[in-house]
Amino acid sequence: MKIVKVTYTATEAYADQNKTNIQKVMSDLQSLNISGINYNCCLCADGKTFIHTAFFESVENEKVLLELPSFVSFQQQLKASGPEVPPKQELLSLVGSSKDVFKA
C-alpha cells in the first residue's frame, strides 16, 4: 500500500475552479469504481488550502489516477494558476484506521 498526502494553497481567485476540477476527478474515479484507490480532498478554513490524501493498494492503482485525463487536466490547470504555496508531497505510513481502507 502507498499513501500520499499533497498540500498546497491556491490563489483566492482560483480556489473555486480548483474545487470544480477536483470534483471532476472524484466523479471520474467514482465511475471507474476501483476498489484499490481511496482518494480524498479537504479544504482548510482559509478557503484556498487543499489537502489531498490518496491510498493506493498497488502501483497499478496509482497509475490509474496519474493517467486519468481529468487528473492530468487538474494538475496542469493548478500549475498554470500560480498557486500561492506550491504542492508539497509527503509519503505516509498507516498506523490505524477506523474502517478497512481496502475491502478484500
Overview of the molecule:
With 104 residues, this protein is an alpha+beta fold. It has a single domain (2-92), classed as Alpha-Beta Plaits. It is built from three helices and four strands; from the N terminus they run βαββααβ. It has helices at residues 15-32, 59-67, 69-81, and strands at residues 2-9, 37-43, 49-56, 85-92. It has a four-stranded antiparallel sheet with strand order 2-3-1-4, covered by helices on one side. Strand 2 (37-43) and strand 3 (49-56) form a beta hairpin. Helix 1 (15-32) runs antiparallel to helix 3. The radius of gyration is 14 Å and the shape is globular. It starts with a strand and ends in a 12-residue tail after the last strand.
List keywords for this structure.
104 residues, alpha+beta, Alpha-Beta Plaits, 3 helices, 38% helix
The general outline is globular
Report the biggest beta sheet as strand number plus sense, adding barrel if it closes: 4 strands, antiparallel
| Rg from alpha-carbon coordinates | 14 Å
Helix coverage percent: 25-40%
Number of discrete helical segments: 3
- Straight-line N-to-C gap: 13 Å
Q: Low-confidence parts, pLDDT < 50 over ≥5 residues?
A: none
Q: What is the CATH C-level name? A: Alpha Beta
The pLDDT mean sits at: 95
Q: Structural class, from secondary structure content? A: alpha+beta
| CATH level 3 topology | Alpha-Beta Plaits
Identify the strand order in the major beta sheet. Answer: 2-3-1-4
* CATH architecture label: 2-Layer Sandwich
Number of strands: 4
Strand content: 25-35%
